């Protein structure tokens, strides 16, 4: 719960990545003192899926007037920067819960596009909060959690991404993109234990048959998101030693294809080359 004024209303309410309940109140209002703790309790239970802010009408008459507040307590619900619902007076807790449940879908569907839009706009903190809110609301939504893991890896938040992998359900390995993200995370985790990319490249040039060096170089390239050069190294592993580490060259190529879903023409080219190499 936080106090809001005209100066920070836009930042705290209009631009919030999660729904907001705005409680218009005053210190002298008896019913306000009844409703306030009830709302604070529900906010604490919500785990970040929505937030509560309070507006003292005595100190913020302009805000109160703008939203037509004539009697308090008066609660206005915001979602996506717009007022979507409201009530006046004190409601029983059961009705409060019903009111709050209407603010967002239970499966977290709305939060993923919101988070992606915030990330695309450069608001990484806002996007992170939106992902966390979506997952608090629906912790078994593996597609949302995998999307959040991808977001964390983009920020080089390796430990946080690893922790999120641990929160996936047993069904997660069947989801699109799971293997690709696991490959990317493992490559990033192992980066500190590998020689520099230039050293590995020199090893490969000195001994083209060194498939172990090629694999390490591919891992470095994947960690750097240089996917096509990584595919070139993996393809050479397939051509030179198909059985190396249980066909790891081919398997890793398939994971990299998933990571390159936004480059279908490039993926098609390498799929054709892989098919030719396997036949």
UniProtKB/TrEMBL annotation:
Gene assigned in the entry: trxA
Pfam families referenced in this protein's UniProt entry, alphabetically: Thioredoxin, TPR_19, TPR_20
Keywords: Disulfide bond, Electron transport, Redox-active center, Transport
Signal peptide span: none
InterPro entries: Thioredoxin, Thioredoxin-like_sf, Thioredoxin_CS, Thioredoxin_domain, TPR-like_helical_dom_sf
Protein name, UniProt field: Thioredoxin
GO BP, one annotated term: cell redox homeostasis
Gene3D superfamilies, sorted: Glutaredoxin, Tetratricopeptide repeat domain
Domain Thioredoxin: residue ranges: 1-105
Record bears the keyword Disulfide bond: yes
GO MF term set: protein-disulfide reductase activity
Coiled coil start-end: none
Native source species: Cupriavidus pauculus
Stored NCBIfam families: thioredoxin
GO cellular component: a single term: cytosol
Family named by the database record: Belongs to the thioredoxin family.
């Amino acid at each position: 719960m936080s106090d809001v004024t005209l100066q920070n209303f836009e930042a705290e309410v209009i631009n919030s990545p999660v729904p907001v309940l705005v409680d218009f109140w005053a210190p002298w209002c008896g019913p306000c003192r009844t409703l306030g703790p009830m709302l604070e309790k529900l906010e604490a239970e919500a785990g970040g899926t929505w937030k509560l802010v309070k507006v003292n009408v005595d100190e913020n008459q302009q805000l109160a007037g703008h939203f037509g507040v004539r009697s308090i307590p008066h609660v206005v619900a915001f979602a996506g920067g717009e007022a979507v619902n409201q009530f006046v007076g004190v409601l029983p807790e059961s009705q409060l819960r019903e009111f709050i449940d209407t603010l967002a879908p239970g499966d977290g569907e709305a939060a993923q596009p919101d988070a992606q839009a915030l990330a695309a706009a450069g608001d990484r903190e806002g996007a992170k909060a939106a992902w966390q809110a979506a997952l608090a609301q629906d912790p078994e939504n593996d597609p949302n959690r995998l999307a959040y893991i991808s977001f964390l890896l983009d920020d080089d938040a390796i430990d946080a991404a690893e922790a999120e992998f641990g929160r996936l359900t047993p069904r997660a390995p069947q989801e699109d993109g799971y293997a690709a993200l696991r490959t990317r995370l493992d490559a990033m985790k192992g980066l500190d234990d590998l020689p520099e990319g230039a050293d590995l490249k020199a090893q490969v040039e000195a001994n083209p048959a060194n498939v172990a060096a090629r694999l390490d170089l591919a891992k470095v390239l994947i960690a750097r998101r240089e996917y096509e050069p990584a595919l070139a190294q993996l393809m050479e592993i397939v051509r030179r030693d198909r059985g190396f580490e249980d066909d790891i060259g081919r398997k890793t190529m398939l994971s990299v294809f998933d990571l390159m879903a936004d480059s279908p023409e490039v993926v098609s080219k390498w799929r054709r080359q892989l098919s030719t190499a396997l036949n």
